[in-house]
Write a structure and sequence with these properties.
Elements: E1 4-7, H1 10-21, E2 29-38, E3 41-50, E4 61-64, E5 81-86, E6 105-110, E7 120-129, E8 134-144, E9 151-161, H2 177-183, H3 186-198
Antiparallel strand pairs: 1-2, 2-3, 3-7, 4-6, 4-8, 5-6, 8-9
Length: 199
Amino acid sequence: MIRRTYIARLFAATVAAVAISGSANAGIIPASVTVTPDAGNFRWTYSIVLPTNMMLQSGNYFTIYDVNGLVNGSIQAPTGWSATTGLNTPPPLGLHPHDTGLAPDITFTYNGPTIPSGQVGLGNFWFDSSIGTSTTTDFTAQNPQASTGNTDRNIVSTLAPAPPGGGGGGPTVPEPTTMALAGLGLPFIGAARLFRKKK
């Protein structure tokens, strides 16, 4: 079976999110995007992470913009989440994602119990597309910080199906999603070691 995995640029995504939120922590982010053939189409799976010092409450959400070739009725999410689609989806206050308005955006909204703190995986979210090649698109999210309760709004880049005839593509990276999730903790391990050395 053909399988292509794209690991999101977590460092760049975190820097972009910090620039928007003004804090040292990014909000909800896509850790990886996996594309696999599925009954004549392609399944796009997003592994979503709630980073450290982030909380998740009912009504919090994230949006993937410009999903080309979306197959009707194919959107799936973990328990406690719902999905809606639309063109020109209003972003979180103060954010300005690129949205062509030519392809649907998908918004996943949480309606489960409060998750009080982060550095946890929120599960896999997926949909089918008639397109298997990728292009860069925007991803926005809104949820509160765990330590302050202040609303965090972030915008990062992710991958989505490319426009028909628009080329696209991306590097094949064999690492599994768990490698991306493990990478979230690496800065904290390094900081802890540095702190111990100073003591």
